Amino acid sequence: ANPEISTKFEDWVETDLLQVSAGQIRKVVIDKYSFDETQMSIKDRVTQTLSRPEGTSPWALTGIKDTEEINDETLNQLTSTLDDLRLAGVRPKPRLVAQATDLSELGKLPQPALMALARELSVRGFFIVKDQTRFFVVSNEGETEAACEDGVVYTLRFGEVLVGTGDEVSAGKEPGKDAKKDEKKAGAENRYLFVSVRFDESLLGAAPVEPKPYAADPAKKPEDQQMDEAKAKHEKEEFEKKKKEFDQKKDDGKKRAEKLTRRFAEWYYVISDDAFKKLRVDRTKLVKPKEEKKP
Q1: Residue 64's closest CA among 77, 79, 48, 78?
Q2: How far apart are CA 197 and CA 258, in angstroms?
């Protein structure tokens, strides 16, 4: 085991990794897929989208049937796991990945460097792919996105299985290029995790709309004009107050996203198989048959 990484793991393990509370989460997207390394393409993709307007509101699932209702126990487990995500270990990311403020920047690398980086990422179960316009990272076991009321959006990508115990998991040796899952190996199953963060202003709600400026109506009596002018002044003051609050929320959200991006930049994480299963949930566990209300 690498002593330096072990020290880093001790720094991380007692902390709240994602720094999010369950009540802050407004939207969860479970993007369940597998990655075909031969074809370099995503397959068997099934996406479930859950949302709620407030932290205490019931969850809604896109496409839920009339005969179904949300399984609150599953959702509580999912959000609680995000709230209190515990680490089994950490590994350093490749330097070029750690330094990239936007993963699409990886496409600017020279081809030999990009190919070497892709090989290194693939050992952990993460892959650099390209569509018509950009490069991005996918994982071999899908991803879960959690969006918060302050505009911070977490993407958790689930990579390769890691089997082992103790320091082997928390800060184990660097795997070779041919490292693969060894099902006969002793120890518990864990999972590599790649966390990234972005800011989405739309989660803050609609920005306040500036009222129309006051224009006197000569057809009205002077006292009515005074009332209209006072009303317009009040509306302008209210708008400026709300705009200041909105701009502050936006600024705070952007700063938190930037801080978290720096926090996660240098490391892959290792989480337990139990946490992985609670975060990458099948639709069958998200819903249950609707109970008929008793008269």
Answers
A1: 48
A2: 8
**Strand arrangement of the beta sheet that strand 143-148 belongs to:** 60-61, 41-51, 25-36, 143-148, 152-164, 188-199, 267-272, 89-92
- Is the predicted pLDDT of residue 281 greater than 70, yes or no? yes
Q: SS3 of 173, please?
A: coil
Instruction: Please state, as a whole number, how many other Cβ atoms lie within 10 Å of the Cβ of residue 164.
Output: 19
* Nearest-angstrom CA–CA distance, 212 and 233: 10
- What's the start-to-end Cα distance of the chain, in Å? 63
Helix, strand or coil for residue 37?
A: coil
Higher-confidence residue of 295 and 181: namely 295
Residue 142 contacts residue 31 (beta carbons within 8 Å): yes
**Quick one: pLDDT at residue 67?**
94
153 beta partners: 147, 198
Q: Which of 67, 33, 65, 68 is nearest to 47 (CA)?
A: 33
Alpha helices per DSSP H over the chain: 3-13, 72-83, 95-99, 111-123, 167-171, 222-264, 273-279, 283-286
- Structure confidence by residue, pLDDT tens digits, 8-64: 555 555 567 899 999 999 999 999 999 988 888 899 999 999 999 998 899 999 999
Give the whole-angstrom CA distance, residue 138 versus residue 33: 10
